[in-house]
Amino acid sequence: MRTTKKTILTAAGVMALGAGLGVAGFASADPTPTPAPSASASATPGWPTDPGPRDGGPGRGGHGPRGGADAAELASKLGVDQTKVSEALRAVREETKPTAKPSPGAAKPDPAERDATLAKALAPKLHVDEAKIKTALDEIRAARQADRAAELKTRLDTAVKDGKLTQAEADAVQKAVEQGVIGAGPR
């Protein structure tokens, strides 16, 4: 096979894999979670939800809807009762419930800005310093990003071992994820 044709086929394979990882990453690893629908759920994107006990689902690794912090994790980091955190999260969602749907194509809020806003709203309800809440949210986000990166590396290593990708192709996919070209990487 000619070198040019081989290069084109390799690039197409990497792009196809990247697109598949991007779709999977978008669906399950986006760190700007959308709250799960419930009677009290808000359409405020990305705020922590209380999906209940960690039983391995929904979402990858049991991190709740699209990677959002849950009340148990936040309560543990803050040293506050989980019920109190759950109630505070529900109250904040109700207070900040949007009156209109976001316009299509609207930019997603910056995760750091969103966490700062959430920390400010939770601080008086939990009687915890705003900076401590923000730090806990940052730690939860960083841990989840590290988990996703490790999972991707494992999947790429397996694909190389199984002969589905060359090491160069796996490295290209890893670089594309790290640079934000395709989903599943840090934002």
Task: Give an overview of the whole structure.
This protein is mostly helical and 187 residues long. 58% of the residues lie in helices and 0% in strands. The chain has helices at residues 3-28, 71-78, 82-95, 111-126, 130-161, 167-178. The longest helix is centred in the C-terminal third of the chain and has 32 residues, at 130-161. The relative contact order is 0.16.
Short description:
The chain has six helices and no strands. By secondary structure, it is an all-alpha fold.
List the helices and strands and how they pair.
Layout: H1 3-28, H2 71-78, H3 82-95, H4 111-126, H5 130-161, H6 167-178
Helix pairs in contact: 1-6, 2-3, 2-5, 3-4, 4-5, 5-6
Please give the alpha-carbon distance between the first and last residues.
39 Å
Which structural class do the helices and strands define? mainly alpha
Number of helices: 6
Shape: elongated
**Radius of gyration from the alpha-carbon trace, in angstroms:** 19 Å
Largest sheet: none
List the helices and strands in order.
HHHHHH
Count the beta strands: 0
Task: Report the portion of residues in β strands.
Answer: under 5%
Low-confidence stretches: 23-68
Helix percent reads 55-70%
User: Averaged pLDDT, please?
Assistant: 73
